[in-house]
């Protein structure tokens, strides 16, 4: 048979109107004074708790700022930073002591609160006056411009350190380097390493690409772990290395599979970038070749009838004139205009060179043409 523990009711402060008073005492006034005194004590106690909570929060804020300052000085290499480092570390040490002191006072306050006797005011409270859904506030989404600016600023400051991390090979070396430079454990580092991999693959430095790809997946796994644990990635990267170094086969296989998939994606992106660069180069060359009418001499040459192509190949002007004479006048005029607009042939060039403008023919079909050697198409 279950025994009910009624001891919890032993420590209750009875109601103000249960005491018997002397007939000469104004009982209602006495009860009001007692109640007022108890309410004032409770308010003072609650106010003390709020002040302790506020002091503890402020202490933690100052400690976080001091720790951030120490990290910045550790990563800096200037003589001034090294001189300030000792002072910042001492300040951090003192703030940690203050935090522990406030935490102790807060704990003592909570214990004292539990020991306080119940009374009519604390026994009779509303159970539920409203419903509150505990939803984590969503962080405001950054715009693309803000993300780009944040990435640019971070890379400008830590590019050398990111590249150093990308070249590490051993687990222990990577863990130690991140311990010494915890600011690198972030999305910006992962994004830069991805770009670095693609650049190396484009430059055909395949072995280096695979090395940096390994470190990229290390950083991405740390970031994914932080999301699953809902903690700052700087606080969980040691857990990743502990897990990966224990030879957990399933975890190791997942890591290797993601690494191989990532390398394939890098090769694909590099191929697309190379193809795009080639197309841009070809378009630039094509623009340089365009004649006065905006046509490409190579494209025009490929559309000419075979007998006209032979005239170009042999650079025989007489042969061209004979070929034009045998063609339909409309078709001949069409092809000749395209040759002129592409700069493939220059009309009346020979007459200009000889300084005899009277020799120019009025009939376009019998014009004298000269090969413009700079735009001469390749033979196929």
TrEMBL record:
The Cdc37 Hsp90 binding domain, residue ranges: 124-285
Keyword Chaperone part of the UniProt annotation: yes
Keyword check for Coiled coil: yes
Subcellular location: Cytoplasm
Keywords assigned: Chaperone, Coiled coil, Cytoplasm
Domain Cdc37 N-terminal: 3-131
GO-annotated cellular components: cytoplasm
Cdc37 C-terminal domain ranges (all copies): 289-364
Gene3D superfamilies listed in its UniProt record: 6.10.140.250, Cdc37, Hsp90 binding domain
Name of one Pfam family that matches: CDC37_N
Residue ranges of the region described as Disordered: 345-380
Coiled coil: 49-112
Biological process according to GO: protein folding; protein stabilization
UniProt GO MF annotations: heat shock protein binding; protein kinase binding; protein-folding chaperone binding; unfolded protein binding
Biological function: Co-chaperone that binds to numerous kinases and promotes their interaction with the Hsp90 complex, resulting in stabilization and promotion of their activity.
Complex and partners: Forms a complex with Hsp90.
Family listed: Belongs to the CDC37 family.
Protein's UniProt name: Hsp90 co-chaperone Cdc37
Species, as recorded: Cyprinus carpio carpio
